[in-house]
Design a protein that fits this description.
The chain starts with a helix and ends with a helix. The longest helix has 18 residues, at 357-374. The chain has helices at residues 3-14, 19-34, 44-59, 63-73, 81-88, 92-101, 107-116, 119-127, 133-142, 145-152, 161-170, 178-183, 189-196, 201-211, 215-230, 247-261, 268-275, 279-290, 294-301, 306-315, 323-333, 341-349, 357-374. The chain is mainly alpha-helical and 375 residues long.
Length: 375
Amino acid sequence: MSVALNSESLVDLAKSRAPADRERLLLGLVGLCEAGGGTAAHQPQVQTLLNSIFLTLVVEAERDIRQRLAGKLAHAEWAPPALINVLALDEIEIARPVIAASPALKDHDLIRLLVEATIEHQIEVARRPRLGAPVVAAILKQAEPAVLAALAGNATAELSEADMARLVDMARQVAALRSPLSRHPKLTGELALQLYVWVGKALREALVERFRLESTDIALALAASVAEAHGGVHDGQGLLVVARDGEREAMERRLIDKLHAAGQLRPGYLVRALREGRLSLFCTTLAILGRFEAEQVRRAIGSDRPEILALACAAVGIDRSVFPAILHMVRELNGGRPGGGADGEHRAAGAFGPVSPKVAGAAFRQAAKAIQDAV
């Protein structure tokens, strides 16, 4: 089949809203870009066009489609950086291959993931092959135990002798560092002797065999450790992994902000969020699309008046025919709220009357304020 014929087929697929056709369209575009080694796709004008097309499609794509697309683009040098950064902030199963291999992710992108993404994403960054020195420095500065352990197991990362010394010193408190460090190719005999003091019997035997540690050196190291402990320097803490409160919600907010800034945040994203069971993502997206306060949206979905949620949806362009499905999914995820039963659903239908989105938005804000005042 020729590229021209493929192009005609893609035009037909672009007219369809079916998930299967959307997937074929995305993968078909990838195939066209890969034709001829992706040379044309590197051109700035083409990159801008591809970024707009892919982001538009990906925003409303199903989870499994995004996952397959991430796998397809993980090694693509022509992939638009903005698209790759959006995929890298997606759910970890989608983000993993992109974080691990995408040449579009530069050191500053990876450092941003260390700041903005979840611990799971940070661990994948630390595992990335041939990790650059600036990213290594950022991981060491952040000092998240689970991420440090992943870095210690990355034999290809650009770890300097000073970096290795710092990791070995951290192993005193972070037990998860000890085993990967004992096998690390950049571990020196001097550092191995320091590590020996803090590991268990099996790792001690492995270190002695690998570095031919002398018994006299071991005895001196142990004696120094005992003296230090009696001096009160060593606090005896083991592995400590601290999960940050609300980190997933914060990451979702940053992802939505990126899409909104790129002009790619669409009402269809609301449906996608609910289908994936992510109620907080739905609320944040609705607030940004409608320029509402997040608390107003939360009040609306927690009330007994589904017509208030309907006003918010009407304000952002949701069609009347789509709202019953949205209401059903919100209730499933929110303990039956907003309540109101069948009567409430009937009232909600009236919110999609012959009024403009601007009027619907103003009515939503007024109704949300009334709920607050009644509390």
